[in-house]
Fold these 2 entries.
Entry 1:
Amino acid sequence: MSKTVEDLKNYLDRIKKYEHIETLLYWDMKTLVPKEGYDGHIDALTYFSAESFALLTSDELYEIVTDLASDEEYEKLDDTMKFIVKRMKKDLEKERRIPKDRYEAFVKAQAESGRAWEEAKEASDFSIFAPHLKKMIDFRVEMCGYTDPGEDVFEVLLEDHEESMDSATIDCLFEDLKSDLLPLLKKILAAPQPDDAKFREKFDINGQKKVQDMLLAYMGFRKEAGAVGESAHPFTLNFSSKDVRVTNHYRESYPVNAIYSAIHEGGHAIFEQNVNPEYDNTVAGSCRYMGVHESQSRFYENMLGLNKNFWIPIYDKLGELLPPFQEITLDEFYREVNHVRNSLIRIEADEVTYCFHIILRYEMEKAIFRDHVPVEELPAIWNQKMQDYLEITPENDAAGILQDTHWSDGSFGYFPSYLLGSIYDGMFLEQLEEELGCVDQILREGRISEITKWLNDQIHQYGSTRTPKEVIANVCGKVVSSKPLISYFTKKYTEIYNL
Amino acid sequence: MSKTVEDLKNYLDRIKKYEHIETLLYWDMKTLVPKEGYDGHIDALTYFSAESFALLTSDELYEIVTDLASDEEYEKLDDTMKFIVKRMKKDLEKERRIPKDRYEAFVKAQAESGRAWEEAKEASDFSIFAPHLKKMIDFRVEMCGYTDPGEDVFEVLLEDHEESMDSATIDCLFEDLKSDLLPLLKKILAAPQPDDAKFREKFDINGQKKVQDMLLAYMGFRKEAGAVGESAHPFTLNFSSKDVRVTNHYRESYPVNAIYSAIHEGGHAIFEQNVNPEYDNTVAGSCRYMGVHESQSRFYENMLGLNKNFWIPIYDKLGELLPPFQEITLDEFYREVNHVRNSLIRIEADEVTYCFHIILRYEMEKAIFRDHVPVEELPAIWNQKMQDYLEITPENDAAGILQDTHWSDGSFGYFPSYLLGSIYDGMFLEQLEEELGCVDQILREGRISEITKWLNDQIHQYGSTRTPKEVIANVCGKVVSSKPLISYFTKKYTEIYNL
């Protein structure tokens, strides 16, 4: 190993430690820290983020990376190192342009904004959050000004979350969906709906937790390399492929949400646990592409979890762990989990209306960054769009613009990833059936591990080394298109709703 | 504020951040980290401990402290700063003599030893732990050689955990107890014992957690400044007075253990939550004296929690949260929680045999550090002493020498603190009754908050600013003695067992 490669590895090893404890602080802030302990965590997070940022953007590291990227040295590297050096060079060139004090101020403001959002949501009072949202927008514009001077801010934000998918591509994909799905949705909403009374009973929370454990194990989540927590908003987080954690949020009534959150986050987690461990704690590791990430969580949640056959091998077990399900037939269960409603909350939405929850957010982010709409006007725009797409208006901001955590830490440009994920899923499902045969049959026979293995081989192992476009080209040999998803929806819901 | 005071405060502020994340890593390692994620935590802990040790022992900090300790500067300081400067000077003079690389090696070895102990306990195989125990002993001897050259190692270890209580004092206190309690214990064990069958039924674990929440709130634990977790071995940990966490370990049968662990750790936590917040994250904060600390956890657990009157206001609630208690009368409950048995596990022992569990460990530590008994011989000595004191021999090492975590991270000299705590409790109870009146009546009337307030005022608020001897002198105006504890035991158990 050359001296420079060794220097780089030492650097990566140090940076890893800072990222490790930043991840842990974040985990604890979201799952456990008491109200009065929050400030101590923010102080530590601010301090160590600044330290790691200084390490990452140091001249010394940049020189090491630049040396290794030079023709002579580069050719001697193995493929993983080649990727790491190239990727780091690209990232560092951007990140090094951010002044340290501004980065530190941003991290601190993010933490404060996160807390303000929680308070605002609890009080259903947008005005508590508004000044922080404004700050997050301004900070993002400022940061983009450093990293990508002269570029369109919204384009940079999209690229940050789903490289290789620009707004022109997304516009096109979303417009296709809108034009075909909106008529389908209107027909569905006009059709007779099932009675969900049996799902509104009391379902023991401890039983729901046991169902989550059962589902995670069934899907292939490895407990030796993972953990489970509780938080207001379910999420997945990873230290490396060896420590991947999911959270959930349980309520006594309507356990369908916690069950599908468990499957969703389980999908994210299985992805992270199966990235090539050689990539751990480098730019090659984890998965930096949010659309690809969401495609995996949503593949398990929707393409598999909403399929009746997924439940055939485990439906008795569900009834054992949560006895009220013994009074619900699998047909009734299947019908309810595929119940399409014009409802208010994104993370509780069915897979059809979900598309419009995302399109709404995508359009709002365009309004913020392209049309510079003042934050005060955003709740009204939100409510109008809900009315336009889903014919429903939030009774308050907690059920409207305050429902999601993303904007509270400045994660603008993230939302489209969810729908891109579903669009990819339409394509992956088609491809998987071509290669492995009928998914209904695989699931019915309890051979879900074959699907997990296919996803591991096709997608997960590559971590961050392939862009979304490359992933799709490699898995499907095609360019990205909304058509397979539209066909899936049309076939499935025409049948369910007898349209 | 003088420039030097400001410099000190800046240093303390930086050190606080490192200690904060070391605490968090420790918390997560004990409560949640998955098996494969352990190494990542050890790596980070080793790195940041070394960094904080370097900060703490830096020449610059030592110069600041030395400057402030000089006559001229010292007189200008407020009382808190005076304490901090004096204490830091004393501590730093010792700690600065430890070579950084040796300290780092020790921290790493501690973490590895902790893991080996867990494995050894699970497999009930002392040989897995033995080489690590040997390493911990050698490291402690080595560390004492740096910090207190020429001093008796065992004396240094005792002083580390309970300053102002040397082995001559402890010998005397423990011998008094032994000579009066061993005859009492023999009489108790010969008397008729209650039937505990009703306590061996199935008690819902979720219900036990709810009981814990109820008890913590009843005792005065503030949830806004605390959190609850699960671990193999219950413990309390604090980031500051604003974030104090307790853990517990639940089993379906015999919920008495989890109930009393909840009260015990709650006592520790109430102490930490009520230390003067101005002392937070300085040497004046928290409580560094383990005997004083244990006196508070054990005061709640034994002096209050084992008193029938403690339960009168909340016994119905207990039955609501854990229905099998509806079939158990308060008299039966009181009888069982004061059931004296010659059992194997310290943390499950009644308050009488508990004394002998500690005396055994104290004598074993003397054997290790004074008589240099090889580690291989320790299990046999343990088993022999169990036979001598409690007339029982562990069936395996998991139930014998491997049961406690303390030695796994080299915390020798800690065990005597538990019994010192009980000895202080005998004195505190006497004093409290002199000042507030009959404890039975206070508890019966649900006025436990008056007791908590008395302990806050008399003990908790002072944190680490008073040595154990000073605490006792201030609270009781007497020198430490085992007599009050012996009287308490004799009166209580003569009555319960009709001796």
Entry 2:
Amino acid sequence: MSFDRLIAKITELKNPTVAGLDPKLDYVPEYLRKSFLDEDGETLKAAAKAIFRYNQMIIDALCDIVPAVKLQAAYYEMYGHHGVKTMERTIRYARLKGMYVITDGKRNDIGATMEAYTAAHLGSVCIGECEYEPFGADALTVNGYLGTDGISPLLSVCKERDKGIFVLCKTSNPSSGEFQDLLIDGVPLYARMGDQCEKWGADTVGAYGYSAVGAVVGATYPEQLTELRARLPHTLFLVPGYGAQGGGAAGIAGGFDKNGLGAIVNSSRAILCAYKKEGCDEHDFAGAARREALRMRDDLTSYISIG
Amino acid sequence: MSFDRLIAKITELKNPTVAGLDPKLDYVPEYLRKSFLDEDGETLKAAAKAIFRYNQMIIDALCDIVPAVKLQAAYYEMYGHHGVKTMERTIRYARLKGMYVITDGKRNDIGATMEAYTAAHLGSVCIGECEYEPFGADALTVNGYLGTDGISPLLSVCKERDKGIFVLCKTSNPSSGEFQDLLIDGVPLYARMGDQCEKWGADTVGAYGYSAVGAVVGATYPEQLTELRARLPHTLFLVPGYGAQGGGAAGIAGGFDKNGLGAIVNSSRAILCAYKKEGCDEHDFAGAARREALRMRDDLTSYISIG
């Protein structure tokens, strides 16, 4: 009912990173893409199948060195229900390989509708006497703009099923300040959102001191990351924006606590497209992803020491 | 590139309502549910197929009197990719029947990821030389917490393809005020969000004076609805919370302009489950839905006069 499973995995692998599985079709190497498109035609179904195979090979290459994967729902919805099926299958495969799985859906709604999202992504659905986990991820990113009504349904499932959520607080993009930095009685909105995360998570704090309610805080705002680490002692941070978006390891270090815990840093394109940057044989795309993941781990752990 | 198509339809039918297709499996009448579960077993697939049939019959019963449907994505994701396939098929069927289709996904993200959501829900995706519209709705609800970076990708597609978006401003739920009512220099956050909607939509204003960027404003806050109508003259409102959540037609009237336009009011459960409330034969569920839709139309238009 906290993020203990994820943090244990981070500690075991001494690696505070999550690999973002945001697979555009043009990230998939030509040879792999071609084999599926030749078989099924230039269809959404073929694209989705190619992406599943690609994800599998990336997961195989990372599962013993990276604790978690994060699936960006948008890149699956792009291929319609075929893509969503690939999302389901990828979640199942990654969990089978022992990885902690975060669905990055930034879902938000209220009451019964939020219960439906919760059942879909973290919980289960009963059809007659049969129970199914439609997606079955370990954690979900959510947007808290609608307040407690949108978060409560998630909390019950977090407790019952040992799941977690990450609430958007200070996002990594240039315009994140338009609303998030607005001052209310001298306190920026993102810090207010963070304060609510502490409240929402209060009765789910686990062995490492972190609750089941985490926060998204961008690597591109190192000052705010450091400020929020001090302000929100029980809130685990999911940190996007490393690398491609310009967030460096030195700045990210402020997001960790004195035990080198408290944050998990995402990298998507740099890992998925490492073979393009490396210029290696595209058949070695998974090897290149692994090399980049190791480089990133070493980069981050040169600034922090875990456990 | 505005909401002209939707408003023309509202004017034609003299009905400012949208029917929410939020179909839980237990809304589907026993006889229909049973026929699909008997055929395919107690599976997510059978549930999704039953819901599609149910949606079709509701759409058939409403399409000549109600201008639009709104599909709540959560109730489709509940059934995994099978449910998402039903969402796709329902969107296609409703458009075929001439209805304007809003996907209520409250999606939000930034940059390339928001482009992926946009392509999925409102735009198209190319696989080789073939182009597909994965979901192909007319409009999408979105959450603006991430600022302009999360909205810009939508705007280009709204312009190119004559689509629209509704941004969450003041939601209908009890805790909506936790963040949305916070005052920044005396102005509540929901009004700030509304001001941005005016800016985002500025170059897409159509024949009726409304842009392609609408706002979600709950029926349960009639004062704010009236206030925002005056403040945001080019922003069309999507108004949830009528009926079940307690919003009455008299209060909603403040959300309309002097021509009886400027808002579209949603009802989901009251229409979908009208047969239960009416206590009629469940085989007449679609007839009951139509009767409730007519009652709602008459209730709203007793306070406003369209066109």
